[in-house]
Amino acid sequence: MLILGEVLTAALRHSGGMPRDRVEDALGLLAGERVRTFERPISYAVSPKTYTGVDCRIVARSGAKVRGVGTLMGRACLTGGRVLQSSAVTRIEPVAGGFRQPWSHYLARLGMVEALGRPDLPGTADAHLLADRSSSMMGMGALCVRLLTGIQGSPVLDRKPPVRARRTVLRWAATIKDGAEDVKWHFAVREDGLRTVRLELGPAQIDDIVNLCEDLALHDWLLTALMSIIEQSQIGVEQPAQSVVKLRPAVDHLLHLWMPAARLDGFALSVWEGLESRPGLSRQWDASVRRVRDQMAMAAALVNNRPPERKQLFG
Amino acid sequence: MLVFAASDKGGTGRSVTSCNVVYRSALSGSDVCYLDFDFGSPTAGSIFQINDVTRGVRRGGMHSYLLEPDIQTTGEPHRIDVWTQSSRASLRQRPPGSGKLMLFPGDQDGGEFGPDKEALRRCVHLLQALDEEFDMCLIDLSAGRSYATQLVLEATADPALRGVAARWLVFHRWTRQHIPAAAGLVYGKDGILDVGVRAGHDKDELQAAIKFVRTAVVDPDSIELSGLRPAQVAWLRDCDEDLGQLAAKHQVGRRAMLGEVPLDPVLQWREQLISDNDVVARDIANNATVDAFDDLARKLAADEEWASL
Ligand SMILES: Nc1ncnc2c1ncn2[C@@H]1O[C@H](COP(=O)(O)OP(=O)(O)OP(=O)(O)O)[C@@H](O)[C@H]1O
Ligand SMILES: [Mg+2]
């Protein structure tokens, strides 16, 4: 079985953290359905699921095409009141015969796209993962943009993002094999703010895979944003007091959000464990955070003209 | 912040000045981008010296992003990182601490177009996404009363962009023809204010967000003119004074002006970015020109310059 997904990640266009009821207003994609919120270990809100009908080409890496009809699942979530993500997901189900069914058929199978004919599933996963940022399969990218843009345009937001950063796209493909014992994964950072994740695993809940990929996308985005802030702060070139002005948004809005696998368990945890040893996301994050804190401490020390006392500043 | 660059007449120096202002902002550490909305003649690629894009890209530029609904839009038109893609060596060394400098080029065979609901929706989405990423997005519009101008006025009136600072620069040369023309573009029938109010803007707020920029201005007191005879200088000074009165009469006077760029020999010769190297090491461009660009970049970002009266 093949499941394809895409995650779009951005800073919420709002200057501070959002009070809970406002978050619910912003994420309420569907009238009547509730936004689910969690406060621990980090505040997290997730919208109800929405479904979008598609009737499109499913293209394999070889160029072979089949027609796909069904629905994409879409949802949005907000972490720490600051990082906004939207996801599009669908399961590709090959069906024999080449006829499109009435919509009621697809509405009874939400979150699934039927591939009419004989699709090349591995080739489809490749095409999905290898495409460049602007060409997304089955309109998944467009769905993510639509969901995210809708929320970013919500009148409850003050339109003042605390950090400027490019939206990143994480595309993923999960192949489920009944007999598979452990998870195989591959995470790649491509140019143009695009990341890909390839997963191979035993039977699993789609929601758990979505949670994992959103969590990866979130932390990758945080790391990317922090590194770009550090780069522009010119540590070591500018006076510490100058650098600190540029580093401040990171301290105020990003540093506390790093909490890998906060809401994950099972196979998702083991993927994170693997990621921690290589490429070592947390190691890179920790090193970056240390640079920021050292710089802040040094600036404070120069102002007060006494040795840095980390405790007082960041106790 | 969104900045719209407009002019009534063509060839006023709108694109060259805008590119240089964006460049100076990036040098000072802001993340900036330049959107070529001059669908008829997208020249920004040539000013930033991007090979193969001197007259726009073949596909995926601003025009096709807005107008080709069959492109599966992912909210991201073609972008070019000027720091890495420029053929100019002095640009390719991105100075430490500088911000992003991104070009969103036009299409080679763009052309003007008429009102289009889908284009408006896409325009709103694009500006929203770029405002998330950049401190300043400068949008270079076609000369005159173009649909591009109407499009962005409608886009900025959209609730999704409310709260995002939007500022207008209207470029004009310092001549008897250009001053009333620039005034007409702002205050005249079907001008920016007219169209803006129809799109849902508050007239006073919009007017406070529009400032004029004088380009290729000859300063009678500049050292370049030191070879002139006293009578000639006196005559130039009279002309300048006349123009000042004309400008004031048309509401294009000092109060409505953000800055002015002197006539520069390098720019007169070709459209390009002026690097510090051109001024200091090569001594071909004038320091005053770079100062003027810096001044515009600074004032653009300074809220107090834009406080409504
Ligand atoms: N300060 C200046 N001094 C001398 N020449 C200038 C100056 N600014 C611009 N120019 C020159 O004026 C000409 C027109 O400039 P530019 O292409 O920027 O104008 P424009 O208003 O964008 O025109 P269009 O409407 O065709 O897009 C160019 O040759 C440019 O180099
Ligand atoms: Mg131009």
Describe the structure.
With 315 residues, chain A is α+β, with helices and mostly antiparallel strands. Chain A folds into two domains: 2-204, no CATH class; 224-310, no CATH class. Helix content of chain A is 37%, strand content 26%. In chain A, strands 1, 2, 3, 4, 5, 6, 7, 8, 9 and 10 form a ten-stranded mixed sheet that branches. In chain A, helix 2 links the parallel strand 6 (83-95) and strand 7 (112-116). The model of chain A has no long low-confidence stretch (mean pLDDT 90). In chain B, strand 7 (210-217), helix 11 and strand 8 form a beta-alpha-beta unit. Chain B has 309 residues and is an alpha/beta fold. Helices cover 41% and strands 15% of the residues of chain B. Chain B has helices at 14-27, 44-47, 62-67, 82-85, 89-92, 117-133, 147-157, 178-187, 192-199, 203-208, 230-249, 265-269, 276-279, 287-301, and strands at 2-7, 32-37, 80-81, 101-104, 136-141, 166-173, 210-217, 257-262. The radius of gyration of chain B is 19 Å and the shape is globular. Chain B has one domain (2-303): P-loop containing nucleotide triphosphate hydrolases (Rossmann fold). An eight-stranded mixed sheet of chain B has the order 3-4-2-5-1-6-7-8, sandwiched between helices. Adenosine-5'-triphosphate is lined by residues 7, 10-17, 38, 41, 43, 143, 215-216, 261, 263-264, 267-268, 270-271 of chain B. Chain B: GO terms for molecular function: ATP binding; ATP hydrolysis activity; DNA binding. Chain B: InterPro entries: P-loop_NTPase, ParA/MinD_ATPase. Chain B: This is DNA-binding protein. Chain B: Keywords: ATP-binding, DNA-binding, Nucleotide-binding.
